Amino acid sequence: MVAMENPHAHAPQGFIRKYIFSLDHKVIGIQYFFLALTAVFVGMFLSLLMRIHLAWPSASVPLFGEIKPETYLALLTMHGTIMVFFVLTTAPQGGFGNYFLPIQIGAPDMAFPVLNMLSFWTTFVGFVVILAAFFVTGGAPLHGWTGYAPLSALPSAGPGEQLGADLWITSIAIFCVASLMGALNFITTTLDLRAKGMTMMRMPLTVWSWFITAILGLLAFGVLLSAGILLLMDRNLGTSFYVPLVVVNGQVMGHKGGSPLLWQHLFWFFGHPEVYIAILPGMGVASQVLSTFSRKPIFGYRAMVYAMLSIGFFGFMVWGHHMFMSGMSPYSAFAFSILTMCIGVPSAIKTFNWLGTMWKGRIRFQTPMLYAIGFVSLFVSGGLSGPFLAQPVLDIQLHDTYFVVGHFHLIMGVAAIFGMFAATYYWFPKMFGRMMNETWGKVHFFLTLAGTYAIFMPMHYLGLAGGTRRYSQYTEVAYLAKLQPLHVFMTYAAIITIAAQLIFVINLFWSMFKGPKASDNPWEATTLEWTTSTPPPHDNFGGVTPVVNHGPYEYGVPGAAKDYVMQTDPVSVATH
Amino acid sequence: MATYTPTSPIDRVGGGHEPPVPPAGGSDDRRGNDGPDYGARLRRARLGLICGIFTVCMVFISLTSAYVVRQGLPTFDGASNSYVRDWGRVDMPWLLMAMNTAVLLVSSVTMELARRNAARQAALAPVKSIPGVSLGSENSFPWLGITVVLGLAFLAGQWLAWSELHARGFFVNTNPNSSFVFLLTIAHAVHLAGGMIALLWAGSASLLHKPVEARRIAVDVTAWYWHFMAVLWIYVFALLGFAR
Lengths: 576, 244
Fold this sequence. Notes:
Chain A has 16 helices and eight strands. By secondary structure, chain A is mostly helical.
């Protein structure tokens, strides 16, 4: 460590500057974390209402009464949007990335602290705007989280497509701006604020994952922003970018010549990288935790880095596989199919390396490790159905069925959530200075793992049997009515799984105040955040700048006094 | 027992000395944005700007993509019972827009002069701080102020161009061509207005008597953004002119 006078050493004292409009990346990370926690409970509540309605269509649910088809579609839209943007994008990158990226590279803060604060508050405004859609005339929009035109482009297309849809688009646009500011900050921080000795190939895989995610965000969110502006213009200025000549309720609309497929292309050019924006940080956390709790170096560090880079690269070339149903040329479909299959290669490399990391390791089955293993399990289970859907011929059969719902919930939703749980249990001691309860953590894990499989695996069978998605009620269709018991089963599983999340919340808040005090390095880990005090001081390293001498995963080092070498340990530590 | 494979090279031989630690990410001074290392701050600000430029590029690339796709789309015409192109025409005020282009290009030149002036002043600052050394009074030309005026003139010119389009009967929803004319030019104007705010911020750094090096960073980053805006406008102008 190099002692130095650090201008970040003096923390602001006032409540507003310290906790509300803070420039400290750690406070901002926690703000993102709690915003995402709020959003996930809103999203989960909406999914619970949907599941209850699907199992018992005539049941009356809280706040909404008996759910009409348009209400079901509004719940569907808001659940998807809130979960994808304000949970899966916000928590892994904005929350944990903000808190730990600067510390893990030895920086006192992000490169642009003011921009960082603006990024959070812009996201917050976006969240408020989307929630407002519930309370305006007509309610929330019906067009799904993908916002397909012309439904999303015509205010007269349904009750939620009036002001509610405008608010939905505005919220997404605001979110795009916030994410772009965040991505800019992450990239600059990673490239320019690394401590002495922290070469790119000594960065923890979490940092790599946040860095690559930021690059994806930088290139993807601008496209969604443009697409959203065109949609707003179609809705409010009478342009025809997405809307062809259409008749709604017997009335000819004033549009002509637009193409709904133009929206799909722009949306999915963003939408597919968004999948990796959600899952890559989970991959980073899984790598970090698996190595730490297996007491082994990560298997194939460089391969892991290159695999993430290739996943990010290919992620921009496969958007067409979401559009096999759009009547695209078979040659285009073939190209998108092959490129999609290519992503299986780096994904398989990562899975192999995670298993290789655990192989013959002295595994410590603590809660973060369980969640990391759960992440790998869900990544494999959800990922294996990907190559099926990458085949245009199969996709045409399966596209509008529950098979796809099961696939993307496992790979993009639950796997990413497991990454976040692993991150929460792993970094909670550093963030809040106390340990979470292990027993309740394990109970939470097993209930959540079993519950999510019980919810989403049957969806694959449902889809293979022809169970269509997006319908609000299946009891009135003869062949679908036979599948109703599966819906009831999934709803029971959902109720139990959602109830299990209360264990997590209670454990989180109880531990925050009453948990046993955490030491500086409770997991005996190696990366820089564990070299500083718990919780870290305002300037992260207490007026010193770390000097890095080792790679991030040096466990089981021959000749070392301990079974791990911290990144800041002197070089000679591994040679005695 | 787990085997050990180092994830980065370690000096395993030992020998009492530590190998040189590879520097990464630039200088050793990791003081964030408040630190006095202006070289590092300038580099960081430029890096952030490059990221920002990538973002703006993606916005305009996607708009261009939409432009090209929409231009080629056929639409059903009930009168002729056939598919026709509905792209339409727009009578652009080319002369006015060419004058605007000239104004923006000149402003880019004045901005560059302001940037070089700020860099020169920053370079001379340490010399001036030596007791007894004087370089004489240096009344630098107000290039920054001139750039602000030219930037405002460009925006005013664009406003006139939009008014002229309205006067000729072309509105945002007249036809797809006019939709894109308004969309692209307004999108550029919004980004340029952001540059204006940055210019005022850079100017205020001087008024607030911030250190000359801090002013230099503000002017430098704003200047590169301003040049990018000029290049972007040439691109938009060419797209609207040659890809009609």
